[in-house]
Amino acid sequence: MKTSVSGKTILFPLLLAATTFLLSACSSDYVISTQDGHMLTTSGKPVKDKETGLLSYKDSDGNMHQLRQQDVKEIVEK
């Protein structure tokens, strides 16, 4: 009995691994410096809500938070 490994069975796991690596490389952490001196580390890029003017971000534990834009001094990519 002869067993052969097709190119498709090898190619799929390689493509899956490459896609996972590329997607994980896209999400960067940021540090938000507030006016009162706090340093907040985010998981991913903070997003400004155009309607409310609040800055939304996810912390390292995955919890969502919001800050007023005027309370933010600086946002730096880590």
How would you describe this protein?
This protein is an alpha+beta fold and 78 residues long. A hairpin with a 5-residue loop joins strand 4 (54-58) and strand 5 (64-68). A three-stranded antiparallel beta sheet has the order 2-1-6, with no helix packed on it. A three-stranded antiparallel beta sheet has the order 3-4-5, with no helix packed on it. The radius of gyration is 20 Å and the shape is elongated. The longest helix has 20 residues, at 7-26. 26% of the residues lie in helices and 37% in strands. The chain has one helix and six strands, in the order H-E-E-E-E-E-E. The chain has one helix at residues 7-26; strands at 29-34, 39-43, 47-48, 54-58, 64-68, 72-77.
Q: What structural category arises from helix and sheet content?
A: alpha+beta
Characterize the overall form: elongated
Which residues form runs of ≥5 with pLDDT under 50? none
Q: What is the chain-wise order of helices and strands?
A: HEEEEEE
Mean pLDDT: 83
Q: What count of helical segments does DSSP give? A: 1
Strand segment count: 6
Strand order of the largest sheet: 2-1-6
Largest sheet: 3 strands, antiparallel
Percentage of β-strand residues: 35-45%
Give the distance, in angstroms, between the N- and C-terminal Cα atoms: 56 Å
Helix content: 25-40%
Supply Rg.
20 Å
